[in-house]
């Protein structure tokens, strides 16, 4: 029987077994371990640290670097998937993901949350009830403490829902076979950023991520833009609820042009912002089951999609002039058409391609690469998978592998993926804590520009010192990741960093000074800490 | 090593100051390198409950339930500062003594020209300190620019500036590498000295070498500077908690090693049941005051050359709302504390608190725009040239309130 785990289709050599044997043999002669090179672990590595159940696939170092970049960090499971499919098929499967189940125990964690068991509409309606109850109790309360307690009930309910969503997001980043889709879901949330602590957005961010962004993350940019722009989370975040004919609020229009489509140098003027704001008038939110009072001729123009409402009574039906093009007042379709035009604008192709390249290739991506991606974007009518395929095939992409600094999200997720590949965690709270300390918590960027993508934002002294503390938390034990919700104690779990996968795929990429540091570890725990603290592990 | 660094910085600052101070502001320049701590009250604190307009009958009309009583009229009445203003009684034992020693000043009607009344928008605009027109650069905060102007660089390439926060705040983002250190959660470092040395060795020659060694250095500095804390805590048998504990740590660290510091304190968004001379807001002000007094105490001799500036994104509505609280407003009251401060007074442009002087018929107006006020403070404190002030606050004209 052909076993792709042991006999790599790439090399045809049973390298994993050889490596395992060498490592195991080394253990028998622990005192002279320092003389053994190659796959050798330090003398402190125990046989039990090396997973006997998941022999790793052997990948060439370039392939490992590719997996590391396209996924949320390399793991034995993802590397095995790559080895089984080969580069071309694996990339195709990432660019055009088929529905892929999560591990059963991970899915069970998600299924137990209120965001999984309660439809979005019910969740929002329930939250409105909680708010009204809290307000009423606060009004009745005589003393300050009781008033605050009443208000807190509502706030805590909101926070719980947002935490469930961020937990689901992390679990998918860790365990979804569709790793590229998960990275892009994070990328697009950041591109079309909303902040969870504005108004009641905490009840909306999960639906925004899961229903508006994730399904379209590798689809057409226009669909993504429209899904974002017409989701109540975005409408509320950028104040388009307040945008009405005669009482223009430019906030949303400005950010759509500056941050979502054309880019700040995209060639639009303040006048264009004002005119686009007029186009967007009337797009708002309605959480009630009532329809606004409209004149008879307006009634046919009224649109309701979930909580998103187009109210023709608030829409400016006059003619507008956006980017030199005249737009007659038509209502909802006028909004959709104008968003579509912005999505198809050449400046958008360039801006979006540049930002994807900044995320996946380099902080300042090579202009030739961005050119090629822009052309692919335009030729494919804004197909994100096609644009990314052009990037993956480019020599600049290959040349950049292993050189990009991980932002905190990449650091934390890749560390847990490497440490606990085959054993799904039970609790994401420690990860959320680490991301909070590092300043990149999901949904928590206040400003519409999203978290910065560049190294300068994340490689500060305080950040590095905190990373090493987090490396220590992950490297020395289970860190609370296996404490089941509601349980007081953590289930014992030791990270399997010194795995067969490490010896085959990671160790060969380490510098002499990193190896020297690993050799100085006095315990298996410390060895883990050093590996997760190494310069190589900060890069992807 | 740290001591040598410290001395070197002192010498550098001492040598530079007199040269740069070519103006009449020379008399104010202190001998020791001046320290500035900016305290940001996030949430928009109700300034009218801190600095109470006790001579305004309008104030008492507009706030039937949440006004702080006129001095002498009740047990929790305002503490008189002058004929027009009183201080919240929660600050009796902490900030009032500083005011009486002329080491505290209040600047009413202070704030920004931003009228969005949005917390985030206004906090950002204050931290960035950029010209109100034009595109915001989210990678350039005014304290980073100030650190750059002061040339307060260590040999490692970073400034003697630090944010005592979980994340590097906007105010310190920019071209200089400024560390951040959250003191509230600072425990024994999990990475010991031997491990730090091994990790640092891994980074030798990499582009992260500077950040890694600086990161460990900041932790080591903090641990060393705070080593006495454990001894004292045992002796006093009470551990200072909350803001006071953090403020003590900040006092020690700034005394020992830093010239520019930043911390933020939350919990000021009092839409509901804020209280008056007692209650929720008074408790918060009391904690803040205790922390600032503790900071002063821990600063020791360095207090003489220290300025603490307390700011907030906006003031709150002058009239109380239906929930015995206040909503987002405009003008605020900023504080300046420190041995270097010419205090004991309420400073800056003022108007009588009356219906006709409210901004948009609801808030304190802003008469003392914060960039002009802080630019004036920095110019005097550090003897900055007009061009240097322009770097810190582009397009702003400094106002000299002679606060230092």
What does this structure look like?
The complex is a heterodimer of chains A (about 550) and B (about 400). Chain A is mostly helical. Chain A has 27 helices and 5 strands. In chain A, the strands form 2 sheets. A 3-stranded antiparallel sheet of chain A has the order 1-3-2. In chain A, strands 4-5 form a two-stranded antiparallel sheet. The longest helix of chain A has about 30 residues, at about 145-175. By secondary structure, chain B is of the alpha/beta class. Chain B contains 13 helices and 11 strands. Chain B has helices spanning about 1-20, 45-50, 55-60, 95-100, 120-130, 140-150, 195-205, 210-225, 225-235, 240-255, 280-300, 370-380, 385-390, and strands at about 35-40, 50, 80, 85, 105-110, 160-165, 260-265, 305-310, 330-335, 345, 370. In chain B, helix 7 (about 195-205) runs antiparallel to helix 8 (about 210-225) and helix 10 (about 240-255) runs parallel beside helix 11 (about 280-300). Chain B starts with a helix and ends in a 12-residue tail after the last helix. Classes of the chains: A mainly alpha (about 550), B alpha/beta (about 400). Chains A and B meet through helix 8, helix 22, helix 24, helix 26 and helix 27 of A and helix 7 and helix 8 of B.
Task: Provide tags for this entry.
heterodimer, A: 540 residues, mainly alpha, three-stranded antiparallel beta sheet, two-stranded antiparallel sheet, globular, B: 404 residues, alpha/beta, eight-stranded mixed beta sheet, 11 strands, 12% strand
Short note summarizing the structure:
The complex is a heterodimer of chains A (540) and B (404). Chain A is mainly alpha-helical and 540 residues long.
């Amino acid at each position: 029987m052909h076993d792709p785990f042991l006999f790599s289709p790439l090399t045809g050599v049973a390298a994993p077994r050889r490596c395992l044997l060498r490592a195991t043999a080394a253990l028998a002669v622990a005192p002279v371990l320092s003389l053994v090179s190659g796959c050798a672990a330090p003398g402190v590595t125990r046989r039990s640290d090396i997973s006997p159940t998941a022999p790793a696939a052997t990948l060439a170092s370039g392939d490992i670097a590719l997996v590391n970049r396209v996924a949320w960090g390399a793991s034995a499971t993802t590397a095995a998937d790559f080895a089984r499919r080969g580069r071309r098929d694996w990339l195709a499967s990432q660019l055009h993901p088929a529905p892929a189940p999560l591990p059963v125990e991970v899915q069970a964690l998600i299924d137990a949350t209120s965001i999984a068991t309660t439809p979005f509409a019910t969740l929002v309606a329930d939250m409105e009830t909680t708010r009204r109850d809290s307000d009423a109790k606060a009004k009745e309360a005589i003393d300050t403490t009781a008033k605050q307690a009443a208000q807190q009930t509502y706030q805590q309910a909101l926070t719980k829902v947002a935490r469930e969503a961020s937990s689901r997001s992390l679990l998918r980043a860790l365990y979804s076979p569709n790793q590229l889709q998960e990275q892009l879901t994070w990328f697009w949330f950041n591109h079309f950023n909303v902040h969870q602590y504005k108004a009641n957005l905490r009840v909306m961010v999960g639906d925004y991520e899961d229903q508006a962004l994730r399904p379209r993350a590798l689809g057409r940019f226009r669909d993504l833009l429209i899904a974002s722009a017409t989701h109540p989370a975005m409408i509320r975040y950028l104040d388009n609820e307040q945008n009405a004919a005669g009482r223009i609020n430019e906030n949303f229009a400005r950010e759509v042009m500056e941050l979502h489509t054309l880019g700040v140098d995209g060639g639009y003027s303040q006048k264009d912002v004002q005119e686009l704001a007029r186009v967007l008038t009337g797009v708002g939110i309605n959480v009630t089951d009532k329809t606004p009072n409209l004149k008879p001729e307006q009634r046919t123009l009224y649109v309701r999609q979930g909580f998103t409402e187009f109210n023709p009574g608030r829409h400016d039906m006059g003619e507008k002039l956006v980017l030199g093009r005249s737009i007659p007042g038509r209502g909802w379709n006028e909004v959709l058409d104008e968003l579509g035009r912005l999505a198809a604008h050449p400046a958008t192709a360039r801006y979006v391609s540049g930002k994807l390249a900044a995320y996946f290739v380099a902080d300042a991506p090579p202009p030739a690469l961005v050119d090629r991606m822009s052309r692919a974007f335009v030729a494919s009518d804004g197909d994100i998978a096609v644009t990314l395929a052009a990037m993956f095939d480019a020599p600049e992409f290959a040349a950049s592998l292993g050189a990009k600094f991980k932002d905190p999200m990449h650091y934390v997720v890749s560390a847990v993926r490497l440490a606990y590949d085959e054993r799904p965690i039970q609790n994401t709270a420690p990860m959320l804590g680490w991301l909070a300390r590092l300043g990149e918590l999901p949904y928590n960027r206040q400003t519409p520009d999203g978290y910065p993508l560049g190294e300068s934002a994340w490689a500060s002294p305080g950040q590095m010192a905190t990373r090493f503390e987090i490396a220590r938390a992950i490297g020395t034990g289970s860190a609370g990741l296996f404490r089941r919700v509601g349980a007081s104690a953590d289930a014992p779990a030791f990270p399997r960093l010194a795995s067969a996968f490490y010896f085959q795929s990671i160790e060969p990429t380490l510098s002499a000074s990193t190896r020297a540091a690993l050799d100085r570890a006095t315990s298996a725990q410390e060895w883990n800490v050093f590996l997760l603290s190494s310069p190589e592990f900060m890069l992807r | 090593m740290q001591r040598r660094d410290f001395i070197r910085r002192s010498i550098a600052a001492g040598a530079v100051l007199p040269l740069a101070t070519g103006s009449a502001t020379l008399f104010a320049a202190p001998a020791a390198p001046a320290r500035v701590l900016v305290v940001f009250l996030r949430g928009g604190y109700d300034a009218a409950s801190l600095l109470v307009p006790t001579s305004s009958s309008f104030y008492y009309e507009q706030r039937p339930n949440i006004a702080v009583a006129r001095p002498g009229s009740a047990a929790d009445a305002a503490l008189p500062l002058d004929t027009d203003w009183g201080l919240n009684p929660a600050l009796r034992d902490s900030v009032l003594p500083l005011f009486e020693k002329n080491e505290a000043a209040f600047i009413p009607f202070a704030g920004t020209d931003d009228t969005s009344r949005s917390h985030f928008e206004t906090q950002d605009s204050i931290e960035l300190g950029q010209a109100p027109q034009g595109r915001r650069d989210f990678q350039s905060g005014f304290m980073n620019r100030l650190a750059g102007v002061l040339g307060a660089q260590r040999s490692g390439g970073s400034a003697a500036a630090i944010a005592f926060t979980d994340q590097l705040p906007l105010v310190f983002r920019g071209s200089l590498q400024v560390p951040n250190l959250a003191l509230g959660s600072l425990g024994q470092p999990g990475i010991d000295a031997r491990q730090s040395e091994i990790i640092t060795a891994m980074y030798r020659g990499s582009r992260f070498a500077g950040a890694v060694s600086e990161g460990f250095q900041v932790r080591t500095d903090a641990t060393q500077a705070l080593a006495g804390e454990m001894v004292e805590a045992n002796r006093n048998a009470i551990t200072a908690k909350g803001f006071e504990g953090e403020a003590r740590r900040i006092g020690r660290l700034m005394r020992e090693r830093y010239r520019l510091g930043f911390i933020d304190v939350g919990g000021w968004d009092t839409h509901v049941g804020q209280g008056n001379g007692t209650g929720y807001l008074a408790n918060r002000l009391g904690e803040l005051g205790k922390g600032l007094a503790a900071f002063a105490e821990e600063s020791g001799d360095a207090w003489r050359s220290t300025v603490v500036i307390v700011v907030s994104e906006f003031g709150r509505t002058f009239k109380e709302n239906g929930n015995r609280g206040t909503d987002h407003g405009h003008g605020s009251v900023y504080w300046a504390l420190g041995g270097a401060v010419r205090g004991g007074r309420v400073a800056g442009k003022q108007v009588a608190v009356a219906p006709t002087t409210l901004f948009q018929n609801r808030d304190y107006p802003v008469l003392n725009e914060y960039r002009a006020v802080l630019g004036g403070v920095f110019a005097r404190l550090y003897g900055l040239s007009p061009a240097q002030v322009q770097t810190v606050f582009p397009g702003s004209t400094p106002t000299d309130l002679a606060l230092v």
